[in-house]
Amino acid sequence: MPDPIFFESVANPTLAVPPIAHAEHHWVEESRTLFYEYNGRPIIEMIVPDDCGEFGFRHSSDGDVQSWPYLQQLYFMLDKPAKVTVHFHLSPEAVSMRPNRAGSEQAIVGQSGFPLIYGVNGLYDIKQDFLMDWHGRDWKWLDTELTPNENGDLIAHLEVELGPKPWFMNLRPHFYRTHLGYTYHEPWRFRPYPNPVTGWCSWEAYRRDVSEENVTAAAEFFKPLKPYGMEFIQIDDGYELTPIPADPTQSIAVSWLNTNAQFPGGHDAVINKIKDAGLVPGIWTSCTLNNDDFAKYQPECIVHDKDGNPVQGDWLGFVLNCEPATLEKHVHPYYSGLRDKGYLYFKTDQIRHLLYDGLQKSAKMGILTNEDVELRFRAWMEAARKAVGDDAFYLASWGVLSQVVGVADACRIGIDANPTWAGVRMQLVESARWFHAQRILFINDPDHVCVRAKFEWTRTLLSLVSLSGGLFMLSDPLDVYDEPRLELVKKTIPPLVTTTAETGALDLSYPAYTWTKLHGFAVPREIPVQAEGVELEDAMNMAGNYATMNDDHPFTSLWTIHINKPWANWSVVGRFATVPLKASTVALENFGVDPTKDYLAFDFWAEKFLGKVTGSIDCSALDLGHCQVISLRPVLERPQFVASTRHISMDAISVKGESWDQNALALELSGVPGTTETYWFHAPGGKAPSSVTAEGASVSHVADGDLVAVSVSFQSENSRLVVNW
To answer: Cβ of 179: how many Cβ atoms within 10 Å?
Structure first.
């Protein structure tokens, strides 16, 4: 057998569409450095000590580990144990990523910013859809965050203990596209809306009885919340002319660009009122086609069966054939017309019926092929997206349809929500199930939050949506927003710009959307759902039985969001009682928090300092639907900021900068003039501050042991708070 021939790595071009191909290695003997490159870019650099014997590594792919989708496995070994530094190079949009979903008693992990999370053994290059994960040896991060180099690429460093047993690494190009099956995921071409989304929707407030007066009143009512992060007022079903199209000889756009008697001023009047309040108008749209005469006047635009009869579907009516001429006549003017009127938020509803009850029904009848269905549905979505423009917000509703990936900014991950436990639980559970998609495929939309639900349930749901970064849309009649509920809203908006830090396939071992269609859902479409309680037995029946049900924290109940700012890194732990939670002790490593470090713990809703924790944290029991939100900040050997009342993140929203200089701790703050918030500080040894001053605010403070509470009354939007010790 001839000796093997080794080819050195070559300078491949960086392709717009990353290749499904193995990474190439390059070994430099002089410096004992091993490089790997993928898509013309360096991805891994490993420096090996010269006093640890022979270094063994898999230098290329021996084949597909699992055939298709493609996976390349690398491994690394040393004759003698030694610590080796590994440098990762990623594109400017990359994140920490655990290559599996949360396990038993393990928190679901997310991230705001670019933290390197303890125990999260993977990195995901979003722009290249490229996942790297590693296993088999002890390792640790050498940094707290991904940092940009001079080219803007993100860099991470870790240290691994190599030895005779292999440390191995999996490289998975096109991870979401092929490994998870989201074939339309092309992040090099499309990324979801980059900002948080906060607003009010008319549907569960007024259903189809919504009026121009309702919407303009909502704009005026929520105007004071704009400084907190309120942005959109979205009109839902009830404004359009019916049937659709109102004139069967014309485009369906006629029903949507004109309004019915409930909106006498038309679109212009309501849009102007929303804009006058400083808010952004949003609109509900649908693919319904229910004028019985449409088939007679425009048969060329709809799907027919083999006998020439129009195909019709439940909740849909006739089925647009989605051919180019049809889309140009009906869909493009519909959406471009609404955009021209001034709407910048588009909720595209009932598309699941176009897909399931129209196009797929036609495939079952043998009229269309499976490929036809995919192409036509996708063409409908793309026509609407093109018409509204790339700068508009585009929500696909309802149900997770993988065909909307790469077109929609957000996707409804559940069915219609309401203020019953069935509705609230669905939102909590589906937010957990679909978290692997958050800001990778789209922004998760758990549907609107009804604050008229039981107060504790409302607090729990608002907390989770805010921390997990979901679509934060309220939907209630205005008279239910009493002061306590408005305070909940103020403390949870805007939602964080959170990206998942874990990935993998959906867990199908427990039921989805549990009982929402069977319990508290079947009401007339014109009547909003009323809030109601629940018996514990009913709640447990909804939950069903699954593997982690009897854990202290069943899956869906334990979360950690890791927050990275230029001046600080901290974690926010959330316990959400989707079933009643027992009193328990949780190891810090289960939160993705280093168990060897000390942390200051603060309970947000209780406004209570829990002291210093090490290794684990004791958690109290929680009743059904209740929550607990705790911040964990690494202990410093000097006074430090701990938490605030302004935002559930404690505080990624109002604190804009932090500095320590000559025994003075300064916070750059953003607040709402005329309001007062409390900022807590920890001082080792109970040392009281010598002075507390502020520019743009009046302040007072109270010292209690190691904790100092500073009351900040904002006189202007921006303030500088200085605490001297």
So the answer is: 21
Name the DSSP letter for residue 304. Answer: B
Entry field: residues in the chain: 725
Q: What is the residue whose two structure tokens read 């290059």? A: 125
Residue 147 has pLDDT above 50, yes or no: yes
Alpha helix segments (H runs only) across 396-533: 421-433, 455-468, 483-490
- Beta-bridged to residue 679, according to DSSP, are 644, 710
Structural contact between residues 432 and 108, judged by C-beta atoms closer than 8 angstroms: yes
- Please give the backbone phi and psi of residue 458, each rounded to the nearest 5 degrees, phi first: -60, -45
Question: Residues 359-382: what's their mean pLDDT?
Answer: 97
Report pLDDT for 513: 72
The least confident of 288-292, 396-400, 405-409 is 396-400
CA distance 147 to 96: 12
Which class for 29: exposed (0-12), middle (13-18), buried (19 or more C-beta within 10 A)?
Answer: exposed
**Rounded CA gap, 724 and 595, in Å?**
31
Backbone dihedral angles phi then psi of residue 533, each to the nearest 5 degrees: -85, -170
Report the amino acid identity of residue 443. Answer: I
Q: Where are the alpha helices (DSSP H) in 207-364?
A: 212-222, 253-257, 266-276, 294-297, 324-326, 332-341, 351-353, 360-364
**DSSP 8-state secondary structure symbol assigned to residue 109:** E
**Number of Cβ within a 10 Å radius of residue 71:** 20
Coil vs helix vs strand at 562: strand
5 has pLDDT over 70: no
Between the alpha carbon of residue 23 and those of residues 28, 43, 60, 179, 616, the distances in Å are 16, 9, 7, 17, 40
Q: Which residue has tokens 């999260």? A: 120
* Eight-class DSSP state of 193: -
**Cα torsion angle, 415, 420, 422, 424, sign:** positive
Burial pattern 425-457, b for ≥16 Cβ within 10 A else e, equals bbbbbbbbbbbbbbbbbbbbbbbbbbbbbbebb
* pLDDT digit string, tens, across residues 192-242: 999 999 999 999 999 999 999 999 999 999 999 999 999 999 999 999 999
Residue 2: the pLDDT is 39
3-state secondary structure of 153: coil
Q: Which amino acid is at 510?
A: Y
**pLDDT, tens digit, for every residue of 12-49?**
899 999 999 989 998 888 889 999 999 999 999 999 99
